[in-house]
Amino acid sequence: MGLFSALDIGKSALAAQAAALQVAGNNVANAATPGYSRQRVNFEPIDSARHGQAFTGLGVGMRGVRRIVDLAVEQRLAEVTSRLGALSASQRVLQRVEASFNALSDQALPHQLSAFFSAAQELSRAPGNVAARRVFLERAQGAAQGFNQIAEGLASSRRLAGDELRAGAADASRLLSEVAALNEGITRLEIGGTAAGQANDLRDKRGQKLQELAQLLDFRAVEQRNGSLDIISAGQMLVRGATAFGLKVEDGPEGSLRLALAEGGQTLAPAGGSLGALLQAHGQTLPRFARELDRLARGFIEAANAAHAQGAPAGGFSTAQSRPFAAAHALSDIPVVVSGLAQQTSSLGGYLVDPALRGYPASAGGSPTAFVGARVLMTSGARAGEFALIREYDPALGRIGFEPPLGGIAAGDTFQITSLDSPLKHGSFELVVANRAAGSEERFAISLDLDQRPTPPATNDTTLAQLVDDINGQLRARLGAGAPLVARVTPDMRLEIASGSPDVSFRFENDSSGFIAASGLNALFAGQHASNIAVEGRLQADPLRLSAGLQPQDNSAALQMAAVQHWQFQPGVTLEQYFEGMAAALGVQGAEARELAENQEVLVQAAKAERETISGVNIDEEAVSMMTHQRAFQAAARFVSIVDQLMATLMQSI
Prior knowledge:
elongated
């Protein structure tokens, strides 16, 4: 070994320690940089050489600068961050729903329903008092608005969840593109994995992007030999090498949203992250609350209308007009209600098949447009009380297609094809005609043949035209050809019964079919959902049309409307109790979501602390490292100086 070799050893030592000092300084400089992983120089001895009978070392070499990371800890941090993102999003949604229910406020729905029932009691004490009628109608409108406000709050929460979902998908697409770009930079700098440590800063940036992505969705990162990371979520490849597959939000069934790949359109259903929670909230949680609220509103509407229909306006009706019975097809020879029993269904495609509907109605020749424009009302099963619009009818199969699909319908569920807001039953009602001048009353029994699931072809159910003919036929038979009362079908497909004499009025009694309330001939509320329930406009315009009883001082209908307060919406559960149960369950879910989010935040902080312990910069440790390398550098410099002196001595002696 010569002096020149010794100089090379000193030179390598100086270079190595200088590099180590630079790395330590860079660590200190980035001590507060988010996502930065501390670095260390990898030293190794240079292969020794033979000198006589011995082998001596040739100095120190550097095999790059490595990041101090634990991939298992990084993955664990991503997992707990993803879970926190999901819980935080769920908590936000539930907080908004709680605000919509506003259960503890004086304006909450239970208070408004209680005020309605109290007003009904007051009306029963003074059924002919106009002021009591106005107060009752105001309270009825207040109860309707209570439903409206909650429904609007739920709809607003769902719209906001959709907006957050779209924004989150855009953020995720941006992060995926950035990860792909960083993959490309890493593979280029590290020459396909053969020059490890050349892209440490890019790897730190990529790690930071992955932690941001974890807040949005759960994923699995797989590192390839060339240094790039493949990102997989819910079985879908989101990043492969330098290629990113962006995300988009599409419309789904029943107003839901679907997260999909921007290219190819494959559905992505993340289980975690805010995107996963928002998808569940938008497609399941919020619609479930809305369905429960609509179910409660429909029960209230039907019960209140049925009670109201047991009375009549002060002095009876001079004119009564129903709601429209048909939509686009406008065929009065279609039965008022067509009952059916689903034998084959498709919730996804949105159709029902009942052989009883084949070739129906016969008088319409089985026209493919016979039912188009009307509605399907489910009367049993998981979606009982919900409507869907008929978009097609196949008379050969007895198949009706509808929108929205109404998931959850099963074979055996019953339904009605109807234009009304509530179901009808096979039964009858009485039309009572009063002649004040003659001091007489005449009663007419009007039957509605609405057999449940008739045998095909079902041509015996009562049509709107038959109903009009039945009413007019009975009136003419008993009151003569010039009967002062006449029924007709208006051009917009409403049933209208009108008196042609100021002395003649009429009312309805003993309705076993539910027709009077459902058709709107004598209803308190219009609408079929929490979002559109409202007091009938004719009652608001004229409080005397309110039905408190059958006679001017009769309070039977008012008492029945007050009794709705104790009507069992479900066995042993009143309307108010059901809503309070909904609000209580919501409160429990909200409290659980807050607690889970708080607990998950603790886990995230613990995972961050663990990562910081491994990858974070410790200033004291770096100070010790710098002192160590400083001493080593000084020693190497002293070594070079000694070798230099030896060489000078050698040269002087020659």
